[in-house]
# Entry
Amino acid sequence: MTRQAAQPTPFHAVILAGGRGTRFWPRSRKRLPKQFLPVIGNRSLIQQTAERLSALAPPERLWVLTNEVLRLQALRQLPQIPRAQIIAEPVQRNTAPAIALAARLLLEQDPNAIMGVFPSDHYIANPAVFLRVLRRAVQAAEQDRLVVLGIPPRWPETGYGYIEFPVGTQSRGAKPAPVVRFREKPNLRTARRFVQAGNFYWNSGMFVWRARVILEAIERFMPATAGVLERLVPLADRTFRRSLAENYAACDDISIDYGVLERAKNIVGFPCPDFGWNDVGSWDAVYNLMPRDNQGNVSRSPIVVQRSGGSYVDAPGKLVALVGVKDLIVVDAADALLICHRSEAQKVSALVKLLEAEGLEGLL
Amino acid sequence: MTRQAAQPTPFHAVILAGGRGTRFWPRSRKRLPKQFLPVIGNRSLIQQTAERLSALAPPERLWVLTNEVLRLQALRQLPQIPRAQIIAEPVQRNTAPAIALAARLLLEQDPNAIMGVFPSDHYIANPAVFLRVLRRAVQAAEQDRLVVLGIPPRWPETGYGYIEFPVGTQSRGAKPAPVVRFREKPNLRTARRFVQAGNFYWNSGMFVWRARVILEAIERFMPATAGVLERLVPLADRTFRRSLAENYAACDDISIDYGVLERAKNIVGFPCPDFGWNDVGSWDAVYNLMPRDNQGNVSRSPIVVQRSGGSYVDAPGKLVALVGVKDLIVVDAADALLICHRSEAQKVSALVKLLEAEGLEGLL
# Structure
């Protein structure tokens, strides 16, 4: 025990980067989805994620779970991470198998490893506060707990799951608190009630736990996935990729929330203080995150404006002229141009489905 | 006289093509203005104009007055016209000197020549009716009259001049009628009165007269311009271009309307039947001239639409996705993208002035 205190448990960060981000079409493509785009600032969201985590997890303890199409992009954008730690799922499964696989690989390196799980496509305005919370979460995880980070809700969002804490739970000090229940995406009325109640937090999709502890839970609740892990050869083995390809499809296609968290008993939550978390869910979210000019426009390109405001413009290499228009999303690509009312920014994914249905594969 | 009846007076068509058409930015540029663009159909407006007139004036009797920057484009687009008849004004003057110059050059070829004057950037939906009217106008011009074509007004336009005919004048039969007065661009109230009165017609900018007769009027009302014509060497002379360059600037900078028509006595008007004349004054005019799809969109590019209608889209080589937007003009070019509410399409020229003021010469 004294040895552990002197030499803290190694923290590994696992970044989940298999998403498609269709709401960011036409910029986001199958081969270059949202997490690999510089939608906020000059570096991509995954680069910002890796950089933010580097204070706790240097590159040799960073892991990326992605798919075969995106692995090349991840290698390009994250050259600091050892290549073997950028892992492609042979087929798409949900978050639980990806996390289970990562846990299994970490465990090969270190039986005491703590792992944090992080989406690759979120934005955090205040990394210092985030890191302070994360350090506390790591301490809680050392007690063999499954730690879930909750975000104080800023509006009655119906697109997120919620974590219910005991009535009166406060985010001050970021102390762990028992989780009463996980709540699925609510309707608007329920979401409003959650926000007013004060003890409901957004489920951030960020988790911290010992690799060993999450694997124990997986063995208990997800035996098919556990079986796959058992059949896998070690990462260092030259047949690892083939072994993964042959076995991974047998994993449960389920999220970590449904697969483990809603069933496990050793869950603890962190009602986090507000560190400016944003899942950057649409172009409208980007508009809201970026500084506006006097007319309320946000632009990455030179614009000339007459009686026009409230718009987001991204048209590389072009001047964009807006005349008498309001609240638009304008995103120009070489082969496609999106013009969308800001209030409909969520519908862009439906648009991509439409393109898919029409067989316009080249535009996806 | 019998000889003239047997061999009709040769009709020459003079096409004025020096305009800039800034309201069609970003498609329209200094080197490729509106008249050279296929804004309606697949051929440019000037090509359509030349083709329409070819029934009365074969290529050897077609003349184009343009400027030095645009002459190359005119030569390219109108290869059927003898090169010498595509004439560049050395400096920009208004319509009166251009028409005077053309008249002088026609007269060199034929002392009896009748000339029609036509803008290069208008659209005529029903050329057969137009040609019928034009033939009658030529007959009236043979009586040494200055003939002005009037268009029956379809709305109280404040952007055009009007021709006032005697009360009760009808367009039926397209007979010439005396012109009571030319009226400058009216305000909306006056324009409404004109349209209701029924004896006010839009001044189309199309004229027919003998070259000799218009030159007599120019000598009388515009002595400076007449002096320039006197000093010019003949078109066939190899020093013609130098002679034009040295003298043309001394011409009066005035329109034919102010310079001649409002002062001459031998004017006669044609209250034309409606032959679908349109001066295609803005992108909104293009929208209104083209067939719409079920959502009321007009597009020259493939579009994918969700809850969007009433828009005009032109983005070569691209798919354009419209989501939740209405009544937009979208015109995409390599270096610029215009997004303009249809109701503000007239303001595009002000936008071009703004670009000019900001020194963005490369975009003009």
Observations:
- The first strand of chain A starts at residue 11 and ends at 16.
